[in-house]
Amino acid sequence: MYLIDFSSCYRFNVKPGKYVAVPSTMDSCDKDPRVLKEFMIRFFTAGPLTNPFEIQDSTTVMTGKGPDMEVDGSVLQLGCTQCITGKFVTGRNAGGQISCRDTFASNPQFFITIDKPQSVKVEVMQPDQKNGFPIGIKLFETDRGSFQSDYNWFAQNYNNAVRDMSGNDGPFSYGSSVDCGYKLQPGTYVLLIHANGPEDQNDFALAIYSESPVQIESSSLDITAVGSLLKQHHTGIYNK
Questions:
Q1: How many domains does the chain have?
Q2: Confidence of residue 220 (pLDDT cuts 50, 70, 90)
Q3: Which residue among 37, 99, 201, 205 has its CA within the 20 to 30 Å range from the CA of 234?
């Protein structure tokens, strides 16, 4: 909402997490030079805010939907979050879809170990950009002894990908964030995320929300785990 006034005030009901406040004008300074002026933003809260700061131009912001997941008609807030950030890079780990035979197996992959039956939500985020590309999520149940990170293994097991709560084998869609929910049994899984083609390059953040702690290991040296296990907090991402 935009108001022509000296001040505007908005009220939000927010959950614990990290948020970005973006003050903006109706037009850019190229269209209306009058918007080039000083401003002040104030936050009124029932409790103290932790270290609010201005985001610099060099900071990459990725927004996610968070740990809420609909299960059997009710909303379940998953209490554990792990976040891993990385970047799709052509010639290294930007493998594209399964039709990209020579590169698909180079996509970022993660071992996930589940110790008890539980609901798990996987969300992949990318920075907003005009030329964004679709993001895909694939989850396979396997054991380390039989798993091979090559195209033949993925091609043979592609139709056996774990079904999400909607009965699908994983999303593949446009957006700044793509997510899906699973009901997983104890075992070892391989999570693979991919873009449309090997030419697609962008930063990404992978968030895995679970009811209880799960073990996650990256199988790629190009991915750096920057998040630790938190309770009802987000690391490296921001809520919409």
A1: 1
A2: low
A3: 201
- pLDDT over 70 (residue 62): yes
The answer to the question of residue 80 being in a domain is yes
Q: Is 98 left (phi over 0), alpha (psi -120 to 50) or beta?
A: alpha
Does 212 or 24 have the greater pLDDT score?
212
CATH number at residue 188: 2.60.120.380
Count other Cβ atoms within 10 Å, centred on residue 29.
11
- Cα separation, 221 vs 63, in Å, equals 25
Say how far apart CA 153 and CA 161 lie, in whole Å: 12
* Position 131 in a domain: yes
* Cβ neighbours of residue 144 closer than 8 Å, sequence gap 6 or more: 111, 188
State which H helix or E strand residue 216 sits in.
strand 215-218
Which pairing describes strands 109-114 and 187-194: parallel, antiparallel, or unpaired?
antiparallel
Q: How confident is the model over 146-157, as pLDDT tens digits? A: 677 899 999 999
Alpha-helical regions (H) of 137-187: 151-157
